[in-house]
Amino acid sequence: MKTTLHFQDADTFYEQLLDAHQGLSREQSEMLNARLILILANQVGDAQVLGDCVAAAKNIPAA
Asked: What is the reported pLDDT for 3?
């Protein structure tokens, strides 16, 4: 799992993500997120890396 910044253009991706959610209901937005996660997971492909990513995402720092 990459732990350093690896985006080529993070700002553009963020804008694309915001634009994709524009005008969607909460349910549609959640469906878009779920589909995007599965598409990106397919791009990664490696089960160990995906498991590490899930574990990292669950590690939410205390506020």
From this structure: 82
